[in-house]
Amino acid sequence: MLPLESKEAISGHIQTSLLKIAGLAEIAAGTHPFERMALDLRVVPASALSADLVDLPWAAFLREESQALVPGRPSIGLSGNPSIVRAGDVIELDHIQQKIAIRYRRGDKGNVLFATERCNSFCLMCSQPPRQIQDDWRIEQLCELAELIDRSEPSLAISGGEPTLLGDGLRRVIAKCAEVLPNTQLHVLSNGRLLSNQSLANLFKGLTPRLSWGIPLYGDHYALHDYVVQSEGAFAQTIRGLYALEAAQQRIEIRVVLVRPAFERIQEITRFILRNLPFVEHVALMGIEPVGFAKAHYETLWADPADYAEQLTASTGAFRRAGVAVSLYNLPLCTIPQALWPYAKQSISNWKNDYLDACSGCAAKTQCGGFFSWVTPQWTSRAVSPIKKETACLTH
Amino acid sequence: MKFRPPQAFIGKAETYHLLPLRFRRLPWDQGRVFVSSLAGDWLMMQRSAFERFVGHDLAADDPLLADLQARHLLVLDQSRSSLAPLMSQYRTRKSYLLDGPALHIFVVSLRCHHTCSYCQVSRQQSSATDFDMDANVSALAVDRLFEWPATELTIEFQGGEPLLHFDQVRAITERILARNVTEKRSLRFVVASTLHDLTDSQLSFFKEHRFKLSTSLDGPEWLHNANRPRPERDSYRRTLEGIERGRTALGDDAVSALTTLTKRSLEVPDAIIDEYRKLGFHSISLRPLSPYGFAAKTHDRKGYTTEAFLDFYARALNHLIEVNRSGFRMEETYASLLLSQLLGPFAHGYVDLRSPTGAGFGAVIYDYDGQAYPSDEARMLAAMGDARFALGRVDQPVEQWLASPAMKHLMRAAVAEALPTCSDCAYVPLCGADPIDHFARQGDVVGHRPTSDFCRRQMGLFDLLLQRYDAASTQEREILENWALRSPATEQVEGALNVAA
Amino acid sequence: MQGFKIMLERRLFSDEVVARAAHRYTHFFGVELLSSDIEIGIVLTPHDGVQIPADLKSRFLNDALDERLRESVRIETADTHRELIQAALREASPRRAASTA
């Protein structure tokens, strides 16, 4: 686990709250104004530390606590794990609480642009419990953040809460990303409910072909889906939202978090998707993240993937035969049938990804996505055990 | 935040509303019914449960309620449901309507080498050039072609034997390509030919324009030659040579074959399939005789009943599935079409079996003499003396064709959902209307379903495939699903399965 | 040829239901319908060469029961059926304006 937040010593007054950490590459490339960057003194060799370099209008300097300050200039002194923040990352400073938050981490495959804490659903397994709070200020901040993210970043997620609650603000963020990050795939995680209003969906028409939407579906009839998301009418709205997105020529992925009520119904949900939503580009079947509301609903939610091998095989097979791309997320290889390994992706964001002690002898460890850092024994499949070399090699 | 149990989300569920549905008692299991929705989604259930369902007697906790909702057969709480998926399914299945006719058949000549007794075409001798399409007619036909709005066009050359008038095939193709520089449609070219006497220059022309070749192969040599006499008695050998040369020049995937089933053919389903396997075909079309052309005259001697065809087909299907199980992938095109409708939501790319009918709405035929027809069958009827289904001439704009008495006559019976007996049939969302077939066989475009061979054949095949799928092992289901779901959808118009070659 | 007669109570089966069921037999049989106040008689006269099956009555009864179910469905869903088709196809519209020629 590599946290996205840390208490560090911030001294001096720093004008901007978002800072790009500049290493040698950033100095050379000159892609961002110095006023928005913090020079990482840990990576600059003493020989290069000239007055010319230091006198540039850096917003701040990043150094290890033990390193010398640059007199008269704002600085951030790191005392914890040095890997928490590195060159290329973008951090947000909280002077009052003396904290830094990593808003973008170079090399993490799961960077998220956090759109809002608000949500209009209350999923039983919500990993980001919502707060009713006025946080439209995030729109502007995300636009600023986009400007500091590496242009070479392959992909970003936009999530929350429910991003569509930003309305046109969401469109602005996406348009900004399309403009300053033209090579980056953008994936919005949304329940799709507000998109049942065609004029909202139409805001996103023609914005960028690199935009796609990840929309969860938990049932093939309203009672089941509405129960999982704890909202009456959610199923009908999400379904209408899906058609509105399709009419607005958007790329769509369906996500199914494999909570037990949905896992029990997964073959019927599969059939429903293939019959009613044949335009979806991808389906993700996802292991539960045991954090947030999920922890309070263990009895209701926990389904050991090892007990559902048949259903997983049938569903993946049905999608494959219909030509719909399907992936298994957050499911360690030892918990699923070997025939399904090609569909398993290493999906857990680096910062919250860990392996168990049991994994030390596993021959498939480098191919396997591992676990969420917050996994506990009760949220761990009984099938977890190291895979032998002979078995692992069969997949190559 | 208080979380609520499942019961809190059932909504107003004391009563439910039926959505439009149709049902059929399973012939092989009278205690069960096949129930289909407006859009062709379906499930099977006990007839007694179905009766309770229709009578609003299903208990609130009956597991069937979820399945019935998911297939849009009933609605519980309307305020929490959406009919959008049902309408989307319906539009998807009928999406072939949106673009206008995509299949355009040019009959460049009636001349042919063969003297097949079942010939649907009313062929002429190979020297009778009066029966060739002339340059004037072909130029006008190309003008008409581009009046249609379809963005994807499949142009198919037929005869007789179109290669006997290859110059016209070339001229028409080049004319179409020249026009298409400004039109920018997506074009596919097909030739339905015996492939006898293919020359290298013809092959290189076909290669240049990425033609597909479709030929007739009735089965093993003895059967093929018996069905398709040439004076030299060597049709099979020449066909194989043509297939080989076609594959070499254009690639294996570019050459397809279909059978015409005679009385003799019905005796040997396995041998026919084994012949196709031997030659490495991954697709076979088992086409029954139709009542046109010379086939009508020889019917009593050489014809067979629909029951005999269905019996043959069941045996052929059995053998075909065994072939697939043994590792050789091979589909039967009509089974794939029917399965694509049974097992998926998409419209299929064939003009057969559509409602509204594919005749005129999906396909147009430009005959050698400048007459236009809505289907090959309409043309064959005209060749037999009844031209009532001719749309008009190639020197008239297509709007006139669409307003012609022929189209009006056809349209009276073009929508299967509006035909007697069809309107109640559980297969109707998956099936189609064939007003011209009914006219040819029964003397009336609407037709009489209890005595309709067309109906008996479709129902027999749907029943057979459904029964097979219902009882199938996982492996066999995968085979059938692969046929269904790899079947051409609307991206590609495949043509007509009843095409003569 | 001897016709085979089946009697059905009109309070259980509407005329339409009986007619629709009888229509299904017109391949093999000539069909005659006779009605009184309380009953409908269906007389099925086999065409040449057609054998009367032993279970003809129970078959016909099953078909009549099926038609009765279809009638219930029709009564409840006819309006919805029409509305759904119209809504589904509403966006289908002509590609070009009709020519004035």
CATH fold-type name of the domain at 99-313 and 346-403 in chain B? TIM Barrel
For the largest sheet of chain B, list the strands in their spatial order: 12-10-9-8-7-6-14-15-16
**Low-pLDDT segments, ≥5 res of chain B:** 488-493
Instruction: Report the portion of residues of chain B in β strands.
Output: 5-15%
**Lateral arrangement of strands in the main beta sheet of chain A:** 1-8-7-3-4-5-6-2
**CATH class annotation of the domain at 99-313 and 346-403 in chain B:** Alpha Beta
| Number of individual domains of chain A | 2
Oligomer: heterotrimer
> What's the gyration radius of chain B in Å?
24 Å
Q: What would your notes on this structure say?
A:
The complex is a heterotrimer of chains A (396), B (501) and C (101). By secondary structure, chain A is an alpha/beta fold. Chain A folds into 2 domains: 5-102; 112-353, Alpha-Beta Barrel (TIM Barrel). Chain A is 26% helix and 19% strand. Chain A has 12 helices and 17 strands. The longest helix of chain A has 14 residues, at 234-247. Chain A is globular. Among the domains of chain B are: 18-93, no CATH class; 99-313 and 346-403, Aldolase class I (TIM Barrel). In chain B, helix 6 links the parallel strand 8 (186-192) and strand 9. The longest helix of chain B is centred in the middle third of the chain and has 20 residues, at 306-325. Helices cover 43% and strands 21% of the residues of chain C. Chain C has helices spanning 15-23, 56-89; strands at 4-9, 29-35, 39-46. Chain C has a 3-stranded antiparallel beta sheet, covered by helices on one side. In chain C, helix 1 crosses helix 2. Chains in contact: A-B, B-C. Chain A binds chain B through residues 122, 124, 129, 220-224, 226-227, 230, 232-233, 235-236, 239-240, 243, 261, 268, 271-272, 274-278, 293, 296-297, 317-318, 321-323, and chain B through 1, 3-6, 8-11, 13, 41, 65-67, 69-71, 76-77, 79-82, 84-85, 88-89, 92, 344-346, 478, 481-482, 485-486.
Provide the descriptors you would attach to this structure in a database record.
heterotrimer, A: about 400 residues, alpha/beta, TIM Barrel, 2 domains, 7-stranded parallel beta sheet, 12 helices, about 25% helix, globular, C: about 100 residues, alpha+beta, GMP Synthetase, Chain A, domain 3, 2 helices, 3 strands, elongated
